[in-house]
Amino acid sequence: MPAPLLIANDIYRHSTLGGKHPLSIPRVSTVLDLVQALGWLAPQQYRDSRPATPEELSRFHRPDYIAAVQAAERDLSISAEDSERYNLGRGGNPVYATMFRRPATGVGGSLIAARHLLDQPGMIYSPGGGTHHGRPAQASGFCYFNDPVLAILTFLDAGLSRVAYVDLDVHHGDGVAEAFETDPRVLVLSVHEAGRWPHSGRLEEEGAGNLFNLPVPPGMIDDEMAALVDDAIGPLLEGFRPEAMVIQCGADALADDPLAKQELSNTALWRAVAALKGIAPRLLVLGGGGYNPWSVARCWTGIWAELNDLEKPERLPAPAESLLRSLSWNRTAGRNPPEHWFTTLQDAPRYGAVRQETRDLVRRVKERMRA
Ligand SMILES: [Zn+2]
To answer: How far does the centroid of ligand 1 lie from the alpha carbon of residue 171, in Å?
Structure first.
């Protein structure tokens, strides 16, 4: 197995969706700096992303929508009619200076990764990807283009017939589910917080049979994620025998995230990736949501460690610590960050009882596996 690759781009360092937007925090650039500060990135493991072209995007997105995003980037404005039609300039999808190039670069990373994995099986990490809410002709939930869908289509177009998509973001991966709910070649599984936006992804939504929704009530802890992974998701995927797998690793189900109410430590996501990474010969791990700059950086850096089987230090070395101390966050919790956000990678694990609702989700997946 070749060494895992990390794909990123400096556009994430030099662009912002605007001061008050939850995504105005640095994320990908901090991960890149942190893995380098830890000595975890050999030069040959890095690949630069590039923006996907309109033609590449049109494999999933409608040409008039792609043109509208480009025009809004150029003009820094959008008509009321197009705003409503494409959900741009509203609903958390602002018009901003790199609103085409930045999300197109996320897609470019996923396309580079998928093509590389077709040539050479292995593991690729693209933390700038994971924009799972994007629709063919609409932006949604901070997502302008849908890179997981385009990566999966790349696998299918090359002739793969079993592709798994696992979405660990706190929000339902609705854009990916809609794209493949009737395609038997793609198993789409989403773990998300029950009752949260976008309010889809109910347990009963099973598509044509390969759609799995695991809505967990607020308060999910590490032991519940472990139960889902060990008793349901892992066995299900092993039975499906995917030729390629995409894991969307949004960090917004972590307890320290400001937008949701799950209670995971980053250990829960690391453990999930470690448990699932060997199931398919081709693995693409993406980012996703995550709105606390420290918890995102620490979580996603640890995921790179999992892919490389690297041991995480209990206390971060000085260069990594000073990097984390240099971050700021325009939120109440950002004024007095707890010391461990600077000095450690790992949160304290959150152990406890697996609730009945979570056990019911495991049971439902097992029933469907037997059927
Ligand atoms: Zn999310």
So the answer is: 4
C-alpha to C-alpha distance for 161 and 26, rounded to whole angstroms:
37
**Ligand 1 centre from 174 Cα, in Å?**
11
The 10s digit of each residue's pLDDT in 293-341 is: 999 999 999 999 999 999 999 999 999 999 999 999 988 878 889 999 9
Residue 19 has what pLDDT? 80
Query: Which candidate in 132, 133, 171, 192 is catalytic?
Result: 133
97: which residues sit within 8 A by CB, 6+ positions away? 15, 73, 76
44 C-alpha to ligand 1 centroid (Å): 31
Dist. CA 22 → ligand 1 center (Å): 11
Domains of the chain: 5-58+101-370 (3.40.800.20)
Give every CB contact of residue 128 below 8 A, 6+ residues apart in sequence.
Answer: 7, 8, 9, 12, 28, 49, 105, 106, 109, 287
Contacts of 8 (CB under 8 A, 6+ apart): 28, 29, 31, 32, 46, 48, 49, 109, 126, 127, 128
pTM: 0.98
Could you confirm whether 133 is annotated as catalytic?
Answer: yes
Percentage of residues of the chain with pLDDT beyond 90 = 95
Q: Which two tokens stand for residue 44?
A: 């040959």
